[in-house]
């Protein structure tokens, strides 16, 4: 009996002991809590900080210019000549340089128009020069109000001066003549029987009743065609001067030959004086008498002649209706070429000159316009860039003035229209530097500048966006519409006092941090912040280098969370620290009071160290 009870007790004890052991194995140990929270901290240190805003947008040229068929502004398009495309030298997307020829044109009608314009200008200039009595080159300097001065066209003597001071003259009216009386001209009538002894270049001798002696003259022309001349117009010389030179003419007219003689005027001859003409006999003529310089005998022509004119004579006529305002010479006065004769002026004359001058100016303007169009038969690029928007044209196509041939976009100056949220727009300032990258150009960083920041935002899908314009220094490889990423510089500082952003909190409208003292206590400090990025903040006041700011605390954990590794706290070993920005990594902190097993790697002042 006793054994049975003992065995039963033994079994019960074994069962109870096994259950207790199983209970201890299955039931986790109670959670031990520290008496005070553990802290993760970071040491305030100096470093560099930069702030920027990232955005994206398409790149487009900031400037461009069209390629067009030449066209003069203000010209009637219907009156302008058409062009023919000879050759197009570029294709869509080709890069071009400023001044590069992109197309060649032809304008047959314009070439003909240029010839007509040139002839019109020359004729208008000549008409005005003749009116003013000047050379065509001198018409540009004339003053219509001052009138003109009629000058001597040749050296000679003024004859027939009929104009008087203040008299009114009509256009074309004879004012005077300037004659060169140093020579004379006589046309002799030679009977058929006399012509054999007359040759061009031969010397003839003239005898005048007004004075003694003979005047030599040279045969300058012999008309070989006989001309029937009424006998009443033929003046037979005196019988003593006649020689048997073919007999008397019969009938009402006589065939004669005209022979022109020219000689030096000894100063006594004038037109209308009658002369007998004689030639030395013989072929060739006999030599002159050495004593007198004249032949010993002469064969005299049957018909006496009159001096026709002086060697040269120029008539001075009025170029327009005018008044004689000044006379410089007297009738019979010798003058040289260019000497002033008289001056013509007056309102009527001025109007005439001004009208002809305006005709010349209009013709010159028309010529200049057509020459300008002709100079543009080579269409050139107005700038560096790429060619876009070219219409499909084939050589030989007819083009009208002003017709569109394409466009040149300058890719050296691009612009980027970007959108920035209302959170970041306060960081963007006009003139800020921008770094621009394009996927099509890997490894290339382009420089840009913010040139405009919108002052008013627009709602886009519930988010307020502000437009920012960025000018970009482009490269030839860029193309309009390429998507670009831009990093806008919002500021930077060197050797600035930095704290991690997780150490900062807002309270009562102020930025604050908690500083862990060496004795384990904490204090709250108001700080003034400068630049802030996603990792650090610049402290302008409130802290000094070496201060330890709290970045995390075990008190911030939920009741169900347990600290199993110090790396859970920001700033603790193994966590992301601001060391790369010049701030040292965070360090664990201790809680006041006793040691806490399983702590965050920190120690509490007083007793023991964390496990």
Q: What is the radius of gyration computed over CA atoms, rounded to a whole number of angstroms?
A: 59 Å
Query: Which class do the helix and strand fractions yield?
Result: mainly beta
Q: Summarize the biggest pleated sheet.
A: 6 strands, antiparallel, barrel
CATH architecture of the largest domain: Beta Barrel
- Widest β-sheet, arrangement of strands: 2-26-30-28-27-31
Estimate the global geometry from the Cα principal axes: rod-shaped
Fraction of residues in β-strands: 35-45%
In percent, how helical is the residue content? Answer: 10-25%
Tell me the count of domains.
Answer: 3
Determine the mean pLDDT.
Answer: 79
Distance between the termini: 56 Å
Point out poorly predicted stretches: 239-249, 562-611
The CATH class designation of the largest domain is Mainly Beta
* CATH 4th-level superfamily of the largest domain: Efflux pump adaptor protein, beta barrel domain
């Amino acid at each position: 009996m006793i054994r049975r009870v003992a065995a039963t007790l033994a079994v019960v004890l074994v069962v109870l002991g096994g259950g207790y052991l199983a209970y201890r194995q299955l039931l986790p140990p109670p959670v031990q809590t520290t008496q005070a929270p553990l802290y993760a901290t970071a040491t305030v240190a100096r470093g560099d900080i930069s702030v920027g805003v990232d955005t994206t947008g398409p790149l487009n040229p900031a400037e461009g210019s069209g390629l067009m068929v030449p066209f003069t502004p203000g010209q009637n398009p219907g009156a302008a000549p058409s062009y023919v495309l000879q050759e197009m030298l570029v294709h869509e997307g080709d890069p071009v340089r400023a001044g590069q020829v992109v197309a060649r044109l032809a304008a047959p009608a314009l070439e003909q128009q240029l010839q007509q314009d040139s002839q019109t200008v020359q004729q208008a200039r000549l008409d005005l020069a003749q009116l003013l009595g000047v050379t065509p080159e001198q018409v540009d300097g004339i003053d219509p109000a001052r009138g003109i001065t009629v000058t001597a066209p040749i050296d000679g003597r003024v004859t027939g001066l009929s104009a008087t001071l203040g008299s009114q003259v009509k256009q074309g009216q004879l004012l005077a003549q300037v004659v060169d009386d140093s020579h004379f001209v006589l046309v002799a009538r030679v009977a058929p029987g006399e012509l054999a002894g007359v040759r061009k270049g031969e010397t003839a001798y003239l005898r005048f009743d007004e004075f003694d002696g003979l005047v030599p003259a040279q045969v300058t022309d012999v008309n070989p065609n006989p001309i029937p001349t009424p006998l009443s117009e033929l003046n037979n010389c005196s019988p003593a001067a006649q020689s048997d030179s073919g007999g008397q003419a019969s009938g009402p007219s006589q065939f004669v030959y005209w022979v022109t003689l020219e000689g030096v005027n000894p100063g006594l001859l004038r037109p209308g004086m009658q002369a007998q003409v004689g030639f030395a006999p013989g072929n060739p003529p006999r030599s002159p008498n050495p004593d007198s310089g004249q032949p010993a005998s002469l064969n005299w022509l049957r018909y006496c002649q009159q001096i026709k004119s002086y060697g040269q004579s120029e008539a001075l006529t009025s170029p327009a209706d005018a008044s004689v305002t000044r006379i410089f010479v007297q009738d019979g006065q010798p003058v040289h070429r260019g000497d002033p004769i008289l001056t013509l002026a007056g309102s009527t004359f001025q109007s005439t000159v001004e009208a002809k001058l305006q005709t010349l100016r209009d013709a010159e303007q028309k010529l200049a316009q057509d020459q300008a169009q002709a100079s543009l038969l080579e269409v050139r690029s107005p700038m560096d860039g790429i060619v876009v928007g070219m219409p499909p044209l084939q050589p030989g196509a007819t083009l009208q003035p002003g017709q569109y041939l394409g466009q040149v976009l300058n890719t050296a100056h691009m612009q980027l229209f970007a959108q920035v949220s209302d959170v970041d727009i306060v960081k963007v300032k006009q003139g800020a530097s921008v770094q621009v990258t394009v996927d099509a150009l890997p490894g290339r960083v382009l420089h840009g500048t913010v040139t405009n920041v919108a002052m008013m935002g627009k709602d886009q899908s519930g988010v307020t966006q502000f437009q920012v314009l960025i000018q970009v220094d482009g490269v030839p490889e860029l193309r309009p519409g390429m998507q670009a990423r831009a990093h806008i510089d919002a500021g930077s500082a060197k050797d600035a006092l930095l704290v991690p952003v997780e150490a900062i909190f807002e309270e009562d409208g102020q930025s604050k941090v908690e500083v862990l003292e060496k004795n384990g206590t904490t204090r709250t400090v108001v700080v003034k912040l400068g630049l802030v990025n996603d990792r650090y903040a610049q402290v302008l006041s409130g802290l000094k280098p070496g201060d330890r700011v709290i970045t995390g605390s075990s008190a911030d954990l939920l009741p169900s969370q347990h600290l199993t590794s110090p790396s859970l706290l920001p700033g603790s070993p193994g966590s992301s620290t601001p060391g790369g920005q010049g701030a040292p990594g965070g360090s664990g902190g201790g809680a006041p009071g006793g040691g806490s097993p399983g702590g965050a790697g920190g120690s509490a002042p007083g007793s023991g160290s964390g496990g």
